[in-house]
Amino acid sequence: MPLARRVRRPGARVTLPRVRTLRALPTLLRVGFAEAVAYRAEFLVWLLSTNMPLVMLALWSAAARDGPVGRYTGAQFTAYFLVALVVRLLTGAWVIWELNFEIRQGTLAFRMLRPVHPLVAYATENLAAVPLRLVLSSPVVVVLLLSSGAPLLSRDPVAWAAFPAALAGAWAITFLAMSLVGALAFYVESAGSVFEIWMGLFGVFSGYLVPLDLFPPWLATLARFLPFRYMLAFPVEMVTGLLPRARALEELAIQWLFVGLLFLLASAAWRRGVRRFSSVGG
Amino acid sequence: MLRYLRLLGVQVRASAATAMQYRTEFLAEGALALFWSGWSLVPVLVLFGHRPVVAGWTFDEALVVMGWFLLMKGILEGAVNPSLASVVEHIRKGTLDFVLLKPADAQFLVSTAKFQPWRVLDVFAGLAVFAVAFHRMGRWPAPGHAAAALLLLLCAASTLYSLWILVISAAFHVVKVDNLSFLFSSIFDAARWPVGVFRGAWRVIFTFVVPLALMTTFPALALLGRLDLRTALGSLLGAALFAAFARLVWKASIGRYTSASS
After folding, report:
1. What pTM was estimated for this model as a whole?
2. What's A4-69 look like in SS3?
3. Choosing among A35, A52, A55, A61, which should be mutated to test the B contact, i.e. which has the most B CBs within 10 A?
């Protein structure tokens, strides 16, 4: 670019950071997609390690062989856990590992030099992998449609219309919670173990291992006040016909409230953490 | 042989000394380990809260399997996984050369590189779960059954270790392997359930391909006195074959290793 054009003329508009970020988005998405394709072997490994819903499906089906468990029949379990698998594959995020690594190794410094907020960069990298995730989870969808669980999928068009929003919300909660916990690595050494606790709570309170209404009532109620339910059980129950329409829309609102809350917390933790960050060497 | 035992002593002492330096971590890890042990019981409690018997297993018997799971998990995370992480790092950076140059078997050196002594807590948690289960059943395992269970424990540990060697061997081909250890533990997680609840393809996979049955279900059956001789002998043979196979694959992989910088 000729130097003369870079000199700001009086009255010329300054590019706002937001606009700059928006302009960078298509490129970031393209880079993220290319990365996802380049690391496809790891993607496959990651896919295989998301096998828990299938194991739990086998287990609960064994329990449902001699009669329904709660309101779950064998077919209902099939629908529940296969949709859970799809939701998990589509909404998973891994920013915590990257953050932990980059903060400790100091390579985060490179990201901070770029004119795009690191969290935005991580988010686009994650989202850019969505097409690949869709491709990889399509066999599960096919199995689901051929399985005994297919007739139990919701017939309510509103539920299906709200499903993408619920998925986006589930992803946002996962991503923001990871960013929040990841920002702890600015303060403490062992942010990883904090995240392990989060994952443990997730396993129980999200309906990943046990559908939430099979819990004793007080535990199921407690789960409604925690963010984990909205990361998995809520979208799953919505499209497997386990939630009435009014309830589903209400929970969608709660889900996005959690997204907003986590957004505020994560960006605050990040802002304060970055001030403490210093990179060594270089 | 004696030399290797001495070497093992040195490696364990080094790990113990390192671990001693992080006493607060010990407390945190200890609290976490207890929390996890309790936490991993939740699905079992919920399941058996709805059904007295699942696939022929009562709650107390399933607890015995759970105890084996916690015990094996202690072994996995205390003795197996830490070394895995360090080998992968060696391969990635090319510093495995230094290990290969040492005048001792490379497989032995990498497998004993790092221990996390605090994971003994998981083993204790497993023993506590056994105690609760047998207390609830109102009987104790017969000495013969306990001896059989101990023998199968050795098989289980050796199989777990062989699986891990196979994972490491994969690391020579796929360098970024943190995901592999993640995959390994995610599959291992299924071992907390008696293999009888799985049907069809799953049961075949968990018995023969990734022999989780050999690691938790069969030892639990032995402790309960329900293991038949054929399965026991099969386990011994299977463990031996698995170990031999892992050794072969390791030899082949190490032969193909080229340092990262060359």
Report:
1. 0.82
2. HHHCCCCCCCCCCHHHHHHHHHHHHHHHHHHHHHHCHHHHHHHHHHCCHHHHHHHHHHHHHCCCCE
3. A55
